[in-house]
# Entry
Amino acid sequence: MSAHLGNDYSTNEMMTVAAARNLGNGSVCFVGIGLPSKAANLARLTHAPEVVLIYESGPIGAKPSVLPLSIGDGELAETADTVVPTGEIFRYWLQGGRIDVGFLGAAQVDKYGNINTTVIGDYHKPKVRLPGAGGAPEIAGSAKKVLIILKQSHRTFVEKLAFITSVGHGEGGEHRKQLGLPGAGPVAIITDLCIMEPEEGTNEFVVTSLHPGVAREQVIENTGWQIRFADNVAVTEAPRAEELEALRALEARTAAAHGQLGGEE
Amino acid sequence: MAELLMLREAVERFVQNGDTVALEGFTHLIPTAAAHEIVRQNKQDLTLVRMTPDLVYDLLIGAGCAKKLIFSWGGNPGVGSLHRLRDAVEKGWPRALEIEEHSHADLANAYVAGASGLPFAVLRAYAGSDLPKVNPLIKSVTCPFTGEVLAAVPSVRPDVTVIHAQRADRKGNVLIRGILGVQKEAALAAKRCIVTVEEIVDDLQAPMNACVLPTWALTAVCLVPGGAHPSYAHGYYERDNRFYQAWDPIARDRDAFTAWIDTHIRGTTDFAAYRAKIAQQQEAN
# Structure
């Protein structure tokens, strides 16, 4: 459960709403399961009705009324404009340069927006074995830009990743360009506390917006590196009534359909 | 021409110890019944290929059938970890498991290359990722026209692929609907292909452009209603999300897991008997 800020909305709801706002109407979005899927569908149900949602299992233009539990739920196929083979999704649509936004979750990120979803500890003698890459490395590489959504803590925002599964800005600066990756990389990390964006030049993620009621100290305490703040830190607009209503209705429909929520809580 | 066979006979004849085996189905049409039959027949030393190992490979790994796993995302979707996979990787139980790890785009391309009869796949991938450091089979190739350096990965060409589909006709032509994943590519990349189906009909009634695998490209077709449970078969039954959740405590504990497969798989003659046993237990609860 997430903490409630006042009695109006939870920190998780703030995170999902803030992430959803980053998705422009009409953009073509390659969606990961869990939090990205929840935020992307919230965008579709609020300010971005024309957003095109693509899932790696093959649906293009999915319009689910409930959140999928798996990346290949039947609901995604039934509501899609078309369903194509998974190989085609990665070959024509992603590698072909037709994805505007890659929307990813992560187990861990570092200050350059690199993502670990593979292992904690040594790869060959893991402390914790995570699921692995899935579609993320190539989404992170080839989508025109990337949004990352995850809850913020010392364990998730780390100084050095045990394993770089998917590349953000690499070692910072121009490194991503030198690697020859086609997309611009991550443009925002949205958490339950704040929004971070890459700083011009260094491409290090700095805090650009604090969610309402969140103090700088909280962000500092929950970041494994010496987090920096932009010169002008905004306060994130609190969730509007229609955003909360749409999100809660989506979650209620999902719980009724699956007996569980379609996003990592 | 595919033979219409009982699943038991198809597995006996076409899955050999030491084979490279792909049971594909991307959260949809996962060939669970075939995995059960492989456990029942105690096939050994298998190299398992599958983008998302899911419960089917958790089962095969925990039952000791696998010596190696080639995969790209290993979790219990919507629930958490695959505990038998983790136990094998972290503790070597019930036997050491070699893992060869890729990304989805890599394996999807590798199946396409396999179906295309090519030795490797080429894709724009992995620059800056640590995966090539732990998987020496991820190499690079330079484009002879532009000089661009691209990833090169070996194609997947299983000895045998097993997929599940909605229906076949009496000649053994197979129709797949809904999420297609890499089922078609995996089927065509393999030396032998077994397809389990929900029903066998006189006429497939396949619309133009439907995904049909012609009988002459397949080895065996087996009637196994419900054979994709706990995953789903579009148009037949829904994903059993509760089973995925119930699997977590079973798989978490070695003894609980062993007892479960002894009772439910080794203790049943076939998938129909397994389903009857599950139904009986649900009634008792």
Chain B has ten helices and 13 strands. Residues 104-154 of chain B form one domain. Chain B touches chain A through 53 residues (CB under 8 Å). Residues 106 and 192 of chain B are 23 Å apart (CA to CA).
